[in-house]
Specification:
The chain is an alpha+beta fold. The chain contains 30 helices and 28 strands. Its main location: membrane.
């Protein structure tokens, strides 16, 4: 039995195959014995990642009561129950439960949307045990098992390769490399970075070409993906800016409410000699009046509407507060491969001995042209270019296809797929050529050669690493025919293409006799004619370039954090508008930095290359240490820890891994970076509308509190009962204010810098406006009460008129609140139809509470004679005019301040 301490060796890549076989007591041809495999499964456990324990639905529901304002509301419910006011108790509890239900169901809906787009990973493995070839569940793989690999297979565990036949593995999800890794079996240095461990195959990566065999050296949580999983579990989650602000706001309001309630109770008890029960009900009424109990509900509704709007724009949001957080993001840290780029290799440049050519179009779609000086190439005038493209097509094992949804894809190596796409784009003679013999691509030789028939001769076409082809060539082809080979010129061309971040592939040929029927490496040692070069890139998404421009305009910095090579990263970054094409930082430099040094570097640099999962996580932490709200995008497992740590983690929905989606707050259903810009816009709109809602709701609470305090201080009639206060609060919060959630984005919002996380939810102007409108409505209503009482109007009618006055006045104030500073008639006055719909609904509700007998009984209201309705409507219109005048004065002050600052 293998010892546990043996597996603590983290450097399987540094051991020879024979050492690995000895340490794991397995066989390179027969694999493990079945008995030994079962014992190791018991000893080390199944090949699965530990699952996070899910919260029960009941616990998730009760979490929505975890708010200090709701606590005060529930205490009020207990007190009213003790005093025997059961109707008040029931209504208060219903308000709290409805608020919890709104949040709970919206979160479930967002979670279900995510589940619908998840893709399942492969769960089987081809192995050899007891000398027999088997297909088993990947979870039953044991340490030491011999795994067989074929094209298209997903690697089921971490393997030390013992056989590699042109084996190439797509590892971008784990390492960030856009090009498949060529595998071999020789031992390498112990300190080799993860992305360069060419004798290893890692769990969840995919075989793109060739075949191979490997020994299982790590399973489950001990694999590289398992380490990332552990790293994620250790990440300490942070709350969003909105939650921090609302929590602080709730505590402040709660403290003020309790303090005022105590002072008012003492004053009423000792100086006005109220009955204790009556005074308690009044103080409870004060507490309920002051608590914006509808705010958590309307907050959830506004965020939920934001979630639905984002879903329409292909962004699935998992947690409601993340909607608003997007609006305050100052930095977006983006992975390159598959996020900013297509992860579809594309030929962009062709070089012959006579000229250079550009290739239009991106990805595997064969749409585009070969151009020179912006003119489509006439291939009849460019025979060398024709031969070069034909060489790339003939010397190729990939194929191009289209799926059921008309999306183009390739089978085989992505680089070869790019060359096939080039051939389909070019206006060359598309005819099949009969192959006679082939030398497959091999990592030792770094080229592929194909022998084909051609009239009275045969031709060997060669495609591969330029340095190998330069060693073979002794002449080159030009329009004037074959000429002496200028190696220095071609080396300069290769350096130039590499400096642009392009991967360079060379093409060459050799003419042989018609009777030549076999092909050996020795046939390529002399007589080879060099044709030219192709520069290949993983192209940036066109829409991502525009999205980055929009982000920059909105004051958001986009940083590229990739596992790719530094020159490639700088070149792609410059093309996309990230960085200057010169400044970039590599992962090995990050490792040498202290946390303090990294904080400065994280702000200074916008391109980070050859990064590991640990580097990405440290960079996110460094930005957060500078109080920068940051988002992290990615599609690979290597992005997951950073996504989880970021203020907003954004995963790709199509190409993203399961781990990445689970770690993220938002999933892009279309894998389109530009969707992020749309989501940021929606986030800013949500936050603006949230502020407008607060500016609208709180004056209701302020006006009611003012009325009750004044009534106790002056010893007059209590203007509203607790249950009437609840009605006013909820009908204004959940009915009228809901219309503000549908307000459109105000002009220039996306041209403003992101707000600081330290920006308070209520600034000085907001506090002024809330107090100003509260006193206007509360004071005016109090004067109206005194006027009616002095004219002999009954107390029940006065209370009913009071309810109508506060609610109808708030309806008028709704139109004030559609813009914080601008006039109510600024812009598209009729653009938000919801304000007119809720105004009509509100009038129906107010008529119901006034004229339906059941409502009269529950809420203590009475039927109003028609002439009493003039008071609330005239008063509401007056308040509307006064607030519009106040906004006009504030705009004048703003204008003078701007002029002063400019001068």
């Amino acid at each position: 039995m293998v010892k546990a301490e043996t597996l603590s060796n983290k450097n399987w890549h540094s051991l020879e195959v024979s050492q690995v076989l000895d340490l794991l007591t397995t066989n390179a041809t027969k694999g493990l014995l079945e008995k030994e495999a079962n014992e190791r499964l018991v000893q080390f456990g199944e090949n699965v990642l530990p699952e996070k324990k899910k919260e029960s639905r009941l616990l998730r529901f009760f979490k929505h009561f975890n708010d200090i304002l709701i606590y005060i509301l529930l205490i009020a419910a207990v007190v009213t129950a003790i005093l025997g006011h059961w109707v008040d108790t029931i209504v208060i509890v219903i308000v709290a439960v409805v608020n919890a239900c709104i949040g709970y169901f919206q979160e479930n809906k967002a979670e279900k949307a995510l589940e619908d787009i998840k893709k399942m990973l492969s769960h089987t493995a081809q192995i050899i045990r007891d000398g027999k070839r088997l297909e088993i569940g990947a979870s039953h793989l044991a340490i030491g098992d011999l795994v067989i690999l074929h094209p298209g297979d997903k690697i089921p565990a971490d393997l030390r390769l013992i056989k590699s036949d042109n084996l190439r593995i797509e590892e971008s999800a784990l390492t960030g490399e856009s090009i498949p890794s060529q595998k071999n079996v020789g031992a390498i240095s112990a300190d080799t970075p993860l992305g360069d461990r060419n004798n290893m195959a890692f769990s969840t990566t995919t075989v793109s070409a060739g075949t191979g065999m490997g020994i299982v050296v790590a399973t489950g949580q001990n694999t590289e993906i398992g380490k990332i999983n552990r790293m994620m579990s250790e990440v300490k989650l942070i709350t969003t800016p909105l939650l921090r602000q609302t929590a602080k706001f709730g505590k402040s309001v709660s403290f003020v409410i309790i303090a005022i309630a105590v002072v008012v109770f003492i004053f009423g008890y000792f100086y006005r000699h109220y009955d204790t029960g009556e005074l308690l009900m009044s103080v409870i009424g004060l507490a309920i009046a002051a608590i914006p109990e509808g705010l958590p509900a309307i907050l959830s509704i506004i965020l939920a509407i934001g979630v639905q709007n984002m879903a329409k724009r292909k962004a699935i949001v998992r947690t409601l507060p993340s909607v608003e957080t997007l609006g305050s993001v100052a930095v977006i840290c983006s992975d390159k491969t598959g996020t900013l780029t297509k992860n579809e290799m594309t030929v962009k440049t062709l070089v012959t001995g006579d000229d250079k050519f550009d290739v239009t179009g991106t990805g595997y779609s064969p749409v585009g042209d070969v151009v020179k000086d912006n003119e489509t190439v006439d291939f009849s005038a460019e025979p060398v270019l024709d031969s070069l493209i034909g060489c790339f097509y003939i010397c190729n094992e990939a194929s191009l296809g289209k799926d059921d949804e008309d999306n183009w894809y390739i089978k085989g190596d992505p680089t070869e797929g790019a060359l096939i796409t080039l051939y389909e784009k070019a206006s060359v003679d598309h005819h099949e050529t009969d192959r006679i013999a082939t030398i497959p691509f091999d990592s030792e030789y770094k080229y592929m050669a194909t022998l084909v028939e051609a009239d009275d001769k045969n031709i060997i076409y060669i495609k591969g690493a330029p340095d190998r082809l330069l060693d073979m060539a002794d002449k080159e082809l030009s329009l004037s025919g074959e000429k002496p080979f200028d190696r220095k010129n071609w080396e300069d061309e290769i350096t130039g293409l590499a400096g642009k971040g392009q991967r360079v592939i060379g093409g060459a040929y050799k003419i042989v006799a018609k009777n030549k029927k076999n092909l050996l490496h020795e046939d390529l040692h002399e007589g080879v004619t060099f044709l030219g070069l192709a520069g290949i890139i993983d192209p940036p998404r066109e829409e991502a370039i525009e999205a980055i421009r929009q982000c920059t305009e909105a004051g958001i910095t986009v940083k590229m954090i990739t596992g790719d090579h530094i020159e490639t990263a700088k070149s792609i970054g410059l093309e996309m508008g990230i960085g200057d094409g010169v400044k970039a930082l590599e992962g090995k430099a990050i490792e040498q930095m202290t946390d303090e040094e990294l904080e400065s570097a994280a702000v200074e640099y916008n391109i980070f290359a050859r990064t590991s999962p640990e580097h990405k996580l440290r960079l996110v932490k460094a930005l957060q240490a500078r109080n920068i709200i940051c988002a992290m995008t990615g599609d690979g497992v290597n992005d997951a820890p950073a996504l989880k740590k970021a203020d907003v983690g954004i995963a790709m929905g199509i190409k993203g891994t399961e781990v990445t989606k689970d770690a993220a707050e938002m999933v892009l259903a279309d894998d389109n970076f530009s969707t992020i810009a749309a989501a940021v816009e929606e986030g800013r709109r949500v936050y603006d509308n949230l502020k407008k809602t607060i500016l609208f709701i709180l004056p209701t609470n302020g006006a009611e509190s003012f009325l009750i305090i004044a009534s106790i201080l002056f010893g007059t009639l209590m203007p509203l009962t607790p249950i009437q206060i609840l009605w006013v609060n909820m009908v204004t919060s959940v009915t009228i204010s809901l219309a503000l959630a549908f307000e459109k984005l105000e002009p220039d919002t996306m041209k403003q810098r992101p707000r600081s996380p330290r920006t308070p939810l209520l600034n000085g102007y907001f506090i002024w406006r809330i107090l100003f409108v509260s006193v206007l409505i509360g004071g005016g209503t109090l004067l109206l009460n005194l006027y009616l009482l002095n004219n002999g109007v009954s107390e029940d009618i006065v209370r009913t008129v009071t309810i109508q006055t506060i609610v109808i006045t708030q309806m008028f104030h709704l139109y004030n609140s559609r813009s914080i500073r601008q006039s109510a008639f600024y812009g598209d006055f009729f653009g938000n139809k919801a304000v007119f719909v809720v105004s009509g609904l509100l009038i129906l509700l107010q008529l119901s509470i006034t004229y339906i007998p059941f409502m009269n009984e529950v809420f203590g209201t009475v039927r109003l004679p028609l002439h009493f309705w003039i008071y609330p409507f005239v008063f509401g219109f007056i308040i509307f005019i006064i607030v519009e005048i106040e906004k006009w004065i504030m705009r004048l002050i703003d204008g003078k301040r701007i002029k002063t600052n400019k001068s």
